[in-house]
UniProtKB/TrEMBL annotation:
GO MF annotation terms: histone deacetylase activity; hydrolase activity
Pfam families with a match to the protein in the record: Hist_deacetyl
Cited InterPro entries: HDAC_classIV, HDACs, His_deacetylse_dom, His_deacetylse_dom_sf, Ureohydrolase_dom_sf
Domain Histone deacetylase: 18-280
GO biological process: epigenetic regulation of gene expression
UniProt xrefs under Gene3D superfamilies: Histone deacetylase domain (3.40.800.20)
Alphabetical UniProt keywords: Hydrolase
Name of the protein in its database record: Acetoin utilization deacetylase AcuC
Entry similarity comment: Belongs to the histone deacetylase family.
Amino acid sequence: MLKVAFSPSYAHSLPLGHRFPMEKYSLLPEQLLYEGTLAKENFFPPDFLEEKWILNTHDKDYYNRLKNLALTRSEIRATGFPLSPALVQREIQIATGSVQAALYALDHGIGMNIAGGTHHAFTNRGEGFCLLNDIAITANYLLENEKVNRVLVVDLDVHQGNGTAEIFKNRSDVFTFSMHGEKNYPHRKEQSNLDIGLADGIADEEYLEKLELNLPFLLKQFSPDFIIYQCGVDVLSTDQLGRLNLSQNGVRKRDNMVLSLAKNHEIPIFCCMGGGYSKQIKVIIEAHAHVFRLAQELYS
């Protein structure tokens, strides 16, 4: 049975101006239940990680100031959210859900998180709606506990996974691959192991050609035994922040390419959702739902 981490949405406790697109985290599971893709038994509520696993990735001073709500105004402004105990607890719970879903993937091929993909969180700071980097925490947990030896991060959000790149810049057991808008946020990019910067307006055919060219090469060159897939849907033409031109069908094909490659090579894969900022929430939900439908199709 497919297992999906689900943390209750934090949107209701945010000021009105900050609630979008947080609403998707409650609407997406509702849609998946409604259409019959998932049942209640597929979801699990994450626990809370022991602090040592967060500190295995994040700077102790930063984490202590975060949990004690002692970040500076500029640090809070960089995250994009007003800082609160509920927000910190949600970030910890999301990271826990990612770790637990990844452990499930080791036994069943795939695990998923309704949230996660917080790739703009650095070792010692947060940015861009990300305070703790669940991708890095998950990879480090698996490696530290000798569950895996080599982790490939496939980050297909429209924004570069700058925090993940910084965290793993001196590691040989994690390969960071980011395919993102070259002129989009963050304007100061970090260096991933492989960065593919995309021109504004790129559409399905060229995007998928680039992905198809690089993914098999990475598997051959790096030989990962685990994949973390950040499948943001802000690559859509309708996205307010994306500046690319992918269709819903293009996102389907993208997800199919990544998941099928993992399945065919028998490499466990963990999927986290990442960004999505189309004006209509139903467009975001439909795009995110693709990867869950595909997971059921390939792994059931």
